[in-house]
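Our consortium's second objective concerns turning raw sequence data into structural hypotheses that experimental partners can test. To show how far this objective has progressed, the report includes one record in full. It was chosen at random from the queue rather than selected for favorable results. The single chain below, 163 residues long, was entered without modification.
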Amino acid sequence: MLTIHAAMDKILKLTCCLLFISMVGVASWQVIARYVLNTPSTISEALLRFSLVWLSMLAIAYVTGQREHVSLTLLTDKLTGKWKIGCDFLMEFLFIGFSAVVLIYGGMQATSNSMSQIYPMLNIPKGLLYLSLPVSGAIIIVYCLNNCCLIYKNIFLTRSQAS
């Protein structure tokens, strides 16, 4: 499981970095085209919007895999032992449920409903924009299942060290 986690980390980091670098390049081109060349680019704004959605969704998946997402730890910091482990499992299962229902199921509905619509400036199906939802949802589920395995593994490591 750790090799899958490490491979997904590398792929997501590389993809997010490439998306961000391309967005900086496209935004720079938009400024140059508008203010220096006096011929504003119509494609660049749509491409930036499209890239931002994909970058955001992939970054959310990556951060979830690192367990660095925003969370309220007021209660969980005070928990120890079985209660802390139980709360960790509960959070992972809530992430899995949210990802399965909202991101994958809802994202597939939005993707299939909008695949026949064309994104006018880019001349691609709008469904490709919404495809970021089920893709990130699937990645989050894989990460959460991996996190559950790590939590479970730590339980046995703690028990074996205690005895």
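The partners drew two points from this record. The first helix runs from residue 2 to 36. Strands lie at 118-119, 124-125. Both points have been shared with the crystallography group to help prioritize constructs.
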